[in-house]
Design brief:
Elements: E1 15-16, H1 20-38, E2 45-54, E3 67-74, E4 80-85, E5 101-105, E6 112-119, E7 138-146, H2 147-151, E8 157-161, E9 177-184, E10 190-199, E11 212-219, E12 225-230, E13 245-248, H3 249-252, E14 258-265, E15 273-281, H4 282-291, E16 294-300, E17 310-326, H5 330-335, E18 339-347, H6 372-384, E19 392-398, E20 400-402, E21 411-412, E22 421-423, H7 424-438, E23 439-441, H8 448-463, E24 468-476, H9 483-493, E25 498-504, E26 530-531, E27 537-541, H10 548-558, H11 560-570
Helix pairs in contact: 8-9
GO molecular function: metal ion binding
GO biological process, one term: defense response
Keywords: Calcium, Cell membrane, Lipoprotein, Membrane, Metal-binding, Plant defense, Repeat
């Protein structure tokens, strides 16, 4: 989600592949994406929560109430962390607080929220809300939810029953209700689209090709640069013109805030050389466009005694286009009813080992400890399930021989002949365990039929005008052998509302699988000379799903909203009903 370049392809579906240099540029741009992420770039949206309550407490014990609500977040398996408090409203059992509680929405992680309501004693009315000691106040009730449960509701409004946890109340049957409404920051909708070009770039190493890209950073309160956006890499070009760059007001804070625009010469080893940089606000960039001015790049002086000086270069930056507009966001589509549907494909090839033995990747531990396949499905599915109200998940296996049958490269995990859906994440777990008892592990590892089957569901949904986007998770322990069939299926699937996440588990060498990930390989080319209309597949090997692998899975999930929005924008799906 870090790359802010618009996807200008896609209106006509898959398109003819360009020359080899264009494919090399695609690979370089993907590698530059990793550079952006390594510099600390992230993607999130600021949400403001509005809170109200009704029928607080019990009239017998709380005939009058001065309520205040405290909001907490909870990290996975961690303690509560307070993120905000409302004001105190005097003498009300049906308060509507005006204080907004700000929280950063992150699609890729579960974000539990806990709301506790307190009756503030009159003796503390002159005390600031932030200074109030909660243990000295009367507890009126508690509610909890996930942030994703709020933003997926129509109008982003969720009503929760207030209850009790460790607090002891005289009558725990009457706590009332708490209503939570989420509003996305207006700045996330205010879009600024710019086209940059450079002239006379100075590449000091004459033996190095000029493969420039721009990295745009804002300056944090601490004075440190925080990357927010990058362009694609232009191969062997001293006068590059990049695809449009899209920023929103939330990213930059204000049009008057300075931005650092750095030009790097791409290097495949990740050590990109700084060509030069400029410091300009968006307002100044807009002025450059209207006046058709340019700005010279500079580099800091190399001499330590001249640390405050800089060397001005002849290389110049131009703003060829500047347009402001308002656009729908990912959460606009979601709260208007668009669903994300989870689909799963599980590798049942013999290389996983005998499921009855503890060293098998498919071993079902009697203690209940999940194996690597179960962990991967749970980590991804626990996030995605909240964007699908029906929670009916198509689930398949591949690379196994059903009883008295030939090897199947796409069979329904639940054993049904016609119906691949199961109920909920636990339904996937049950179907998976049942399949292990009813199939013989075989091979080889083929993805083509599985992807085509999932694509058929997405295609039918599109034909039925359903507001759905599909995410297919494939968990495998080996390298695919049907490379071209897999590539052909991926390229066809890029025209439909779906994304694919491939996770490699076990100790295999997955280097040959990197062709699946546009962040690591060249742009995929079909057997008929077509390339994907957009990036919609990712691959990553994960050895420890609950350790460092957990952050890897989160980074894969973090790409989904951007892939979703690219599909919506390139298909000109601007509104949803």
């Amino acid at each position: 989600m870090g790359n802010c370049c618009s996807d200008e392809a896609g209106h006509g579906g898959a398109h003819p592949v360009g020359p080899a240099a264009a494919k090399a540029a695609q690979a370089a741009s993907a590698a530059a994406d990793r550079f952006l992420r390594s510099r600390g770039a992230g993607a999130s949206t600021q949400i403001e929560l509005s809170l109200s309550a009704s029928n607080l407490g019990d009239q017998e014990y709380f005939p009058k109430s001065n309520p205040m609500v405290v909001v907490y977040s909870r990290r996975k398996d961690g303690p509560l962390e307070e993120i905000g408090r409302s004001e105190v409203i005097l003498n009300s059992l049906n308060p509507s607080w005006t204080t907004k509680i700000s929280v950063q929405y992150q699609f890729e992680v579960l974000q539990p929220l806990v709301f506790q309501v307190f009756d503030i004693d009159t003796q503390f009315h002159d005390v600031s809300e932030k200074m109030l000691k909660l243990e000295e106040q009367d507890f009126l009730g508690e509610a909890s939810c996930l942030l994703s449960e709020v933003v997926t509701k129509r109008d982003r409004l969720l009503t929760l029953k207030l209850g009790v946890s460790e607090h002891n109340l005289p009558n725990p049957s009457k706590f009332g209700e708490l209503t939570v409404q989420a509003e996305e920051s207006a700045g996330s909708k205010a879009i600024m689209e710019m086209v940059f070009r450079c002239s006379d770039l100075e590449i000091k190493d004459l033996l190095t090709k000029s493969d420039p890209f721009l990295l745009i950073s804002k300056i944090s309160d601490s004075g440190m640069p925080v990357p927010i956006c990058k362009t694609e890499v232009r191969k062997n070009d001293l006068n590059p013109r990049w695809k449009p760059v899209i920023l929103n007001l939330q990213q930059i804070g204000s049009k008057e805030n300075p931005l650092i625009i750095e030009c790097f010469n791409f290097s495949s080893n990740g050590k990109h050389d700084l060509v030069g940089k400029i410091v300009k606000s968006v307002a100044e960039l807009e002025n450059m466009y209207h006046r058709q001015n340019s700005e010279n790049f500079f580099v800091p002086a190399s001499n330590a005694q001249e640390c405050h000086s800089k060397e001005v270069l002849k290389s110049q930056l131009y703003v060829e286009k500047y347009v402001e507009s308002n656009r729908h966001t990912f959460l606009d589509y979601i709260s208007a009813g668009c669903q994300l549907n989870f689909m799963v494909g599980v590798d049942f090839t013999a290389s996983n080992g005998n499921p009855r033995l503890p060293d098998s990747l498919h071993y079902i531990d009697p203690s209940g400890r999940p194996n690597v396949y179960q962990k991967a499905i749970l980590e991804i599915g626990d996030v995605l399930q909240h964007y699908d109200p029906a929670k009916r998940f198509p689930s398949w296996g591949f690379g196994a021989r059903p009883i008295d049958g030939p090897v199947s490269h796409c069979f329904n995990l639940n054993g049904s002949t016609y119906q691949p859906e199961v109920d909920g994440i636990q339904g996937i777990m049950s179907a998976y365990i049942s399949a292990l008892r009813n199939v013989s592990l075989a091979g080889p590892t083929l993805f083509g039929q599985l992807i085509s089957t999932a694509m058929a569901i997405a295609s039918q949904s599109l034909a039925d005008n359903q507001q759905k986007y599909f995410i297919l998770l494939i968990v495998t322990d080996g390298v695919v052998t049907d490379f071209q069939e897999t590539i052909d299926a991926i390229i066809k699937a890029s025209d439909f509302p779906m994304s694919i996440i491939v996770i490699g588990v076990g100790g295999a060498d997955f280097k040959e699988m990197e062709f699946l990930d546009p962040n690591k390989g060249e742009k995929l080319e079909s057997s008929t000379g077509r390339v994907a209309s957009r990036d919609m597949i990712q691959f990553a090997p994960v050895k420890d799903v609950h350790g460092s692998g957990a952050s890897t899975l989160q980074s894969l999930l973090a790409e989904i909203p951007g892939q979703f929005m690219t599909y919506m924008r390139t298909r000109e799906i601007q509104t949803v009903s």
